[in-house]
Specification:
The chain is α+β, with helices and mostly antiparallel strands. The protein contains nine helices and 14 strands. The protein binds N-oxalylglycine (OGA) and nickel (II) ion (NI).
Length: about 350
């Protein structure tokens, strides 16, 4: 009986116990279900980064600024992350989730403070309803502080993932400069606010689901970090909230999806919003997505940029350390309410 399975990981419950119904702890109340028939296919902007370092830079920066203001989400092409690096990363993720259960379970933990961990749902210590997802979470910057914790099986895991992390970090730094400029700030302003900088990633594995109308891979949430760079495979599942409607972001090969996280919302003093998004699942195919969460280091002090605070637009948030915000985020379930409410300026 699936509902009484003792398996720690969802993928093993799905593949070994051959369930044909979603177990009760994954079922959302009727009012919170995804309503998959009410989804729009209007897309988010696709921005070509090839001119970011040419004479047309300001044009690309304008496009990025507009996408941040209007959508909080955009896709990028010609981003200089090699296709082979992307293909190797996706293949290693696929291979990792195919390892035998006992091999994967060596790094399983439900402790969200661990810097390398395989787990399931979002935070099973705090949530009441589980999510249809397993994930491997890694810290990746500074690389030498964490790489020794990473899996060594598959054998090329560390090499391929490290190469991907370095390359995507280069893209993150370019985007952060462009976002800084698009706000009218010095190109290096945001980068300077991030302390030693931080970079985390997740390898998300969403198994096929017998009743995708009843549950989520991940329910609506905003990302806590600065910006997220998402790689997804060919299976749709990401949806973004726009003007009260969920729109599906269908995969485009060799592009990344970028979204503004909560820390850009704070630094921009609410000019750019960290937008709700969610992952839905489907009956037919497994889905893999690989978000890179670029973030400040825990000791970095985050607050609205002084240049963006005026008499007409006073500071919306007080200053806080990223570590403080990060701990609050992981100590509660994944919620549609932003944790930024805890850091509002008291006028
Ligand atoms: C996330 C996330 C979306 C996806 O991991 O924060 O929003 O498509 N993932 O997996
Ligand atoms: Ni997210």
């Amino acid at each position: 009986m699936a509902a009484t399975s003792k398996r720690l990981l969802l993928s093993d419950l799905v593949s070994s116990d051959k369930i044909d119904k979603v177990p009760s702890n994954y079922i959302r109340p009727i009012s919170q279900r995804p309503n998959l028939r009410h989804v729009f296919h209007d897309s988010i902007p696709l921005i070509d980064l090839s001119h970011l370092y040419g004479p047309n830079r300001c044009h690309v920066v304008d496009q990025i600024g507009r996408a941040c203001r209007e959508y909080g989400f955009f896709q990028v092409k010609n981003h200089r992350v090699p296709e082979s690096t992307i293909a190797n990363m996706m293949q290693i993720a696929r291979d990792f989730f195919k390892l035998p259960e006992e091999e994967r379970l060596k790094i399983y933990t439900d402790d969200p403070t661990r810097t390398t961990r395989l787990s399931t749902s979002f935070n099973i210590r705090t949530e009441k309803i589980a999510n249809w997802r397993d994930f491997l979470r890694l810290h990746c910057h500074p690389l030498q502080d964490y790489i020794h914790e990473w899996p060594t099986n598959p054998a090329s895991f560390r090499d391929h993932v490290a190469e991907y992390c370095r390359s995507v970090r280069g893209l993150a730094l370019q985007l952060i400069e462009a976002i800084s400029e698009s706000l009218g700030l010095d190109r290096n302003y945001i980068s300077r606010q991030l302390g030693k900088h931080g970079q985390h990633m997740a390898l998300n594995y969403y198994p096929p689901c017998p009743q995708p109308d009843l549950t989520y891979g991940l329910p609506g949430h905003t990302d806590l970090n600065l910006i997220t760079i998402l790689l997804q495979d060919h299976v749709p599942g990401l949806q973004v909230l726009r003007k009260g409607h969920w729109i599906a972001v269908d995969p485009v090969p060799n592009t990344f999806i970028i979204n503004i996280g909560d820390q850009i919302q704070v630094i921009s003093n609410n000019k750019y919003k960290s937008v709700l998004h969610r992952a839905v699942v489907n009956c037919d195919e497994e889905r893999i997505s690989i978000p890179t969460f670029y973030c400040p280091s825990p000791d970095a002090v985050i607050g609205p940029a002084p240049e963006l605070v005026t008499d007409d637009e006073p500071a919306v948030y007080r200053q806080f350390t990223y570590g403080e915000c990060y701990n609050k985020f992981w100590n509660r379930g994944l919620a549609t309410e932003t944790c930024l409410d805890m850091f509002l300026a008291t006028n």
